[in-house]
Write a structure and sequence with these properties.
Blueprint lengths: L1 H50 L3 H11 L1 H6 L5 H18 L8 H14 L1 H4 L8 H29 L7 H33 L1 H105 L4 H7 L12 H5 L12 H6 L12 H4 L41 H4 L2 H9 L15 H14 L3 H10 L6 H9 L4 H4 L1 H10 L5 H17 L3 H16 L15 H5 L10
Length: about 575
């Protein structure tokens, strides 16, 4: 796997290097082609200059020594250099159209075309005029200035005189005349330009065409510059793309390595978990089998100990003896009094000291023991055999003398009366718990209340005081388990009265919480306002069919409408 990874990395590196070399070769090819084109042009120029012997050093001086080298070597912006080269190109282009310098008209048109061709570069509209026209214009301007000076002198001389009524009117007339003359000058100039355009339409068209070509050429140059910039950006984007591809491949390898380690670890954990579960299952099954075997052995021993036939059962358990009628308790506890001793008078016996107390009687348990079986000769008597007496409750006691027996309960009650309370005692069963909700919901409520870890008064106090004892999660849990209006209706009380059993703990909690909250809500301000509103409504409804109302009746649905309280009550 490592060898494959190394091979893949080396292959990707080799591919990237090949791409870089290919790009470099393409760039060198383009640059070589450009250089070859430039060399061809220079060779043509040099060849043409060499044909005219004297022009060769002048051409070399223009191209290399002074002109173009100075322009290219200037420390200015690249755009300014490009504009200067464009101006030189336009000048050479217009100069190539000249045939001679003797005709002033051709020179004038040459300069005019050159100015028009470079106007989009310089951004200025220059006006070229012939020399004779300029002299004529200067003379006209001089004459106009002289006339203005004379008029001003006349006005200055007239100011020394007292002002008359025609002073401001004459000044206004001068201004009007100057404005009219200016308008006439502008009209004459426009007519002159129109006449010149009619005389030389072809030249104007050529100028416009050259201007358009120059504009298109500038657009083409800007497009080429933008294409070059975009090519540079494209190359940078390709390099970034190659770097990103390498990063993606590296991340893929890292993810594959991490995933392989994770899957191997998960398989190991799964095998260990299965082995652990198998061992625990085997141990559990072994323990259960041992318990079952022990139970089977105990059952077999008990089964063998039991009698299998009726004869064995009768031999092992003989029939009980017939019951005998018990003697009264008084005859058992009170023996007959012994006669007084001989020689002792009755008076002496009555006046002498009392005899010592007799020994304590045997415990009552011995009295309740069954009597011995009757002799065999009494079994044939035809008297009915009474049922055996019930077993009395065994108690301990102290011996008492015969003189004090008559003052006890034993003298007035029989043994059956003493045995009756103990036999009639019934062990009361534990009362079962009854829930008024569904058992599943009651269990959910119980689990929720155990998680809150607050007693019943604490929950009620937290709900009433709106303190921080109950968190937001606790309030959400309580809100999810709130009882519905049907559960708060009278059916719950009817069920409680019907069964008469204690309520399940969650029901008790909710009953206490709701009851206390309802009692605390009664004296609140919204409740008092509602009561006052009801009483005021009853007073206003005296003339209607509701006029007999003297109060209000609290209902659950009406109480639930009190939104500010957020409590439930019955």
């Amino acid at each position: 796997m490592n060898q494959l990874n190394v091979y893949t990395e080396e292959k990707l590196d080799d591919d990237a290097e090949m791409r870089e070399r290919t790009r470099g070769m393409m760039r060198r090819t383009v640059s070589d082609a450009a250089l070859s084109d430039a060399e061809n042009v220079m060779q043509d120029i040099v060849r043409l200059a060499q044909e005219h012997g004297k022009l060769y050093p002048v051409m070399v001086d223009i191209l290399l020594l002074h002109k173009y080298s100075d322009v290219l070597g200037k420390d200015v912006e690249l755009q300014l250099k490009a504009d200067l080269l464009m101006v030189l190109d336009k000048f050479v282009e217009q100069a190539a159209m000249l045939d001679k310098f003797d005709d002033s008209w051709h020179i004038f048109m040459f300069m005019k075309r050159f100015v028009a061709s470079v106007s989009h570069i310089t951004g200025q509209e220059l006006e070229v005029k012939a020399a004779f026209e300029s002299d004529y214009i200067v003379e006209e301007e001089l004459e106009s200035l002289q006339t203005k000076v004379e008029e001003l002198n006349n006005e200055g001389g007239s100011q020394g005189k007292p002002p008359g009524k025609g002073g401001p009117e004459s000044f206004h007339g001068i201004v009007q005349r100057l404005m009219q003359e200016e308008k006439q000058v502008l009209q004459l100039q426009s007519e002159l330009d129109r006449i010149k355009g009619q005389q030389q339409p072809n030249e104007v068209r050529d100028v416009d065409k050259r201007v358009k070509q120059a504009h298109d050429r500038s657009k083409w140059n800007t497009l080429m510059d933008e294409i070059a910039k975009l090519k540079v950006k494209n190359g940078e984007a390709e390099t970034l793309l190659g770097i990103k591809d390498k990063e993606i491949v590296y991340l893929k390898r890292v993810l594959e390595f991490v995933y392989s380690r994770f899957s191997a670890r998960e398989e190991h954990h799964e095998e260990a978990r299965e082995a652990k579960m198998d061992a625990e299952l085997v141990v559990t099954c072994t323990i259960e089998m041992a318990d079952l075997k022990a139970q089977v052995a105990n059952m077999k021993a008990k089964l063998e100990a039991k009698p299998k036939t009726e004869k064995e059962f009768k031999a092992r358990s003989p029939p009980p003896p017939p019951p005998s009628k018990p003697k009264p308790l008084s005859t058992l506890l009170l023996p007959p009094p012994s006669p007084p001793a001989a020689g002792i008078p009755v008076s002496a016996a009555s006046t002498g000291p009392p005899p010592p107390p007799p020994p304590p009687p045997p415990p009552l348990s011995s009295l309740s023991a069954p009597p011995p079986p009757p002799p065999p000769q009494l079994l044939g008597v035809g008297l009915p055999i009474p049922p055996p007496p019930p077993t009395a409750f065994r108690m301990g006691g102290n011996k008492i003398n015969n003189s004090t027996v008559s003052n006890t309960k034993l003298h007035s009650q029989s043994i059956t009366q003493l045995q009756h309370p103990h036999n009639s005692r019934v062990i009361s069963k534990k009362s079962t718990v009854t829930t008024l909700l569904d058992i599943t919901r009651a269990n959910h409520i119980a689990i929720m209340l155990k998680r809150i870890k607050l007693n019943f008064p604490g929950i009620c106090q937290a709900l009433l005081e709106l303190n921080d004892d109950l968190s937001i999660d606790d309030l959400r849990a309580i809100g999810k388990h709130l009882l519905t209006p049907d559960e708060f209706s009278g059916q719950l009380n009817q069920r409680l009265w019907k069964y008469g059993r204690p309520i399940f703990q969650p029901d008790n909690i909710y009953s206490e919480a709701v009851g206390k909250t309802g009692l605390h809500a009664l004296p609140s301000a919204p409740w008092v306002n509602k009561v006052q509103t009801d009483l005021a409504g009853n007073a206003l409804n005296e003339s209607s069919f509701r006029g007999g109302a003297q109060g209000f009746q609290l209902e659950l649905e009406a109480f639930l409408k009190l939104a500010p309280l957020h409590t439930f009550a019955e």
